Amino acid sequence: MSEPRPLEGIRVVDMTQYEAGPSATQLLAWLGADVIKIEPPGGEPSRHLIGGDARRDSIVFVLFNQSKRSVVLDLRRDADRLQLRDLLGTADVLAENFAPATLERLGLPIDALLQELPRLVVASVRGYGPHGPWSSYKSLDFVGQAVGGAMSVNGLADGPPMRVGLTIADSGTGLHLAVGILAALLRRAQTGRGGRVEVSLQDAVVNLMRNAMTPTYVAGTAAPRTGSAYVTSVPSDLYPCKPGGPNDYIYILLAAKQHWEGLLRAIDRTELLEDPRFARQSARNANPDAARAVVREWTERHDKLDAMEHLSKYGVPCGAVLDTAELLANDQLRAAGMIVDHHHPQWGALRVPACPIRLDGFTPRMDPAPAIGADTDAVLSELKTRTR
C-alpha cells in the first residue's frame, strides 16, 4: 500500500488569482490537497497573461495551478452562489485574495461563514494589514516590494531604488500563507475550530527584510544600497568571467577567515596571506579596490562554472550566475528533482520547477494545470452525492 499524501483528505476551495494566492494553494496541491479552483466564465485572469492566446493558457497560469481542479461558476447568479456555498460546506479551507469587502458583496461575509462553518479556515491575501491607514489600499508584487522596503536596499549605491527581478512579494506572501493555513489546520485538530488566516504583501516583505535592517539597528540610519558588494566582508562581490556575456559572472562570498585563505590558495596567490592590506577583515574592508582587483584578475580568465567548481574544492562559498535558460537545463536542479519534465496538453513538453519541499517516502503531485471548467461537472456531481 502506498503512503498517503501529507495533505490527503484536505479540500481547498481556491478563489485566488494571479500569483500570491495561487502560489500558496499550489504548494498545498503539490502536497496532496484537493484544490478546487473557482473561476468566472471567462477564466481566471492569469490565463490570459504572457504566452496565453486562443489556443492555450498563459505559462504563468500553467506554472501556478498544477494539480488543481477547475470549476466555473458565475457568481453574479444566485444559483451559482448557492453552489459555491454548498461547496464550502465540504471544504477545509477557503483561499481568497479579493479586494477588501468583495466577499461581502458576493453574499459571503467571512464572519457569517465562520459562524455557520466553524471548522472552515478562511485564508486571505491582502496588500496591507487589516488595521491602519493603508488597510483598504490595493497592492501587487512591485508595490509590495516598495512598501516592504525591498526596493530601498536593492540597486547601486549611486542609483535609484530598484525592484527585485523575482516576485518576492507575491510568492513570498504565498509561502507565508501556506504556512499559516497549515498552522490553522493543526489548531483545528486540537480545538475543533477553524478561523481566519491573513498575510499581507507588505508584512511578508518586511519579514524577509530582517537581515537588511541590521544597519538601522547598529548605526541608526537607513540601510544603504550597495549593489552586489557585501561591504562588511570585502572582497565578497560579483565578479566577471569569460567570455564576458551578460550573465557571465560568479558571486564569491567570504564569511570567515578560512574562506579568504582558501580563495588565495585556489587562485595561487598565497603570498598575499601576509600582506598587511589583507591580513585581517578590517584591513580588507579598508582596501576594497585592491582586494577586489586580486579576485577579478583571476575570474576574468575563467568560465563561471569552471571557476565555481575550482573554488568550491577549496571550500570557498561561491555561485555562478545562472540565467533562466540555464536554470531549466542545470544538472544540479535536474538531479535534485527540482526541474522536471512535464507535459501540458496545450503547451506540450515542458521543463518546469517542481515542489521544493522534500518529504521522505513522498513524491509531490505534478498533474497539469486544468483547462477552464474541466472539473465543473465532476465536482458538482460529487457535491450532490455528498449532500443527499
Report on the architecture of this protein.
By secondary structure, the protein is of the alpha/beta class. The chain folds into two domains: 11-208 and 355-387, 3-Layer(aba) Sandwich (Rossmann fold); 237-329, formyl-coa transferase, domain 3 (2-Layer Sandwich), CATH 3.30.1540. It is built from 16 helices and eleven strands. The protein has helices at 20-30, 59-64, 78-88, 102-105, 110-116, 141-148, 168-191, 201-208, 214-219, 257-266, 281-286, 288-299, 304-313, 324-329, 331-336, 376-387, and strands spanning 11-15, 34-39, 68-72, 93-96, 121-126, 195-200, 237-240, 249-252, 318-320, 339-344, 348-353. It has a six-stranded parallel beta sheet, sandwiched between helices. It has a three-stranded antiparallel beta sheet with strand order 7-8-9, covered by helices on one side. Strands 10-11 form a two-stranded antiparallel ribbon. Helix 1 (20-30) links the parallel strand 1 (11-15) and strand 2 (34-39). Helix 1 packs across helix 7 (168-191), helix 6 (141-148) packs across helix 8 (201-208) and helix 7 crosses helix 8. The protein is elongated. The model has no long low-confidence stretch (mean pLDDT 93).
